[in-house]
Amino acid sequence: MDISAQTFFYHLPRVLDDLASCCFVSIDFEFSGIAKGLGPSAKSRSTLQERYEEVKNSADQYQILQVGLTICHEDPETATYTLKPYNLYLSPIIDRKLDLDRNCSFQSSAVEFLLENKFSMEDLYKNGVTYLSRDEESRIMARVMQRNERTTARSSLDVGDHEYESLAFLKDVRRLVDEWLALGKAREDYLNIPPPRPITGPAPSNHPKSMPTDLNRFQKRLVHQLIEVEYPSLVTVSRPGFIQIIDYDEQREKAVRDQRVKWVQERIWKQTGFRWIAEALAGGDLTNLEPFCFINLMSSSKENPQSSLQDFSRGVKQRLQKNRPVLVGHNLFTDLIYFCRCFFGPLPDRVEDFQAMAHEMFPVLMDTKYMATHNCGSINPRSSLQEINDSLAKQPTPAISRSIAILSFLTNVDQVYTLNLPNTTRGQSITKLALIVCSLLRFSLNFLPSSETGERRGFRQQFQKHLNPVKSRRSPRSRL
């Protein structure tokens, strides 16, 4: 299913609900650029740290442009798997009102590859789902809070001695403010810069001839700076075409600051976009996701009636925290680095620190490229998705002993796949291989010896938590 910016928040609650009960999730990305190696002077085989630095530097420069997400649910009673695939573009554009720019880089070879495979640059920018990383959110909020602190007021004007027109404009504004303040209690509650002109007749005597009828953005900025630097007992309010100057009131200004912070926070939550899904995958915090988002999901839920929408949304978020599905990918090392950099922020320098961070977010990881090439020799290993797909297409089920009825669900893999997945080599290879490997893990973990080590026992228990044994209702004839 294709998800666009227009339909994202419609599908989001259902995706989150599926993630809260699935057994594994496969991911696949398209990038604006990838690592190209350490250079001609590099050794023939790089260390893990060197490879990590190479991909990390690439992830700092390039972005994820497209996401493929397949959510897998297991039905132990019917011995079937249901796959729900999603595909979406990720727009690199950030709401300009958040006052944060994001640098976007494209590698020419990557663009060539994308266009050859019918990647739509128009859909990327017009229909792409927005996102905002944790780091970007923190920077936006830090900037807002800094602006709200009156103790950080500027001490000088950004005007040079040679900017004669700006100096003349400031002189006129200064005169108008001084005349207004000199009126004392007889003055009005506010002063407009420039003073309003009558529709007919001559301009008032206090209106400087050099002052325009409407202020542009630069002139407004000069007025803001002048009042902030030279008149601490006053504040400015921007209006269409003019600036209004009023007395400073601490209580009112605090309410204005609080409202500004709330407004920015709401825009941040809207811009967060796909990161809500990233947080759900990583066991992150979804507290700020509005309960209203789940209203349609709640109305169609078959569960027991909830006391309130807040309780229902809280329940979904709690289930997301408890359910940590297996994360599956092809060449997952690269995908994981880009994923964490794109949605969370700058990565640690040491690969060991990244490893600890990644496993805290994703307790169980599965790389189908590694599994397809492990112990296959160094000459022409079958690592491409097309080759893996060709190999898997010849075996509808794993070649497992008939006595292992635990694997009988795989006789329906092709049928389930046909009903739920688009006919793409990439999605078919990753998902089908993951199903086969999951079944093998079930078998091996259920038949470990009683004398297993503590480390191995912990490994078994962790997998069994995610992969419950299949209880097939099929007749013996249908079993492998």
TrEMBL record:
GO cellular component term, pick one: nucleus
Gene Ontology molecular functions: 3'-5'-RNA exonuclease activity; RNA binding
Protein known as: Contig An04c0320, genomic contig
One of the GO biological process terms: priRNA 3'-end processing
PANTHER family to which the protein is assigned, alphabetical: POLY A -SPECIFIC RIBONUCLEASE/TARGET OF EGR1, MEMBER 1, POLY(A)-SPECIFIC RIBONUCLEASE PNLDC1
One Pfam assignment: CAF1
Protein family per UniProt: Belongs to the CAF1 family.
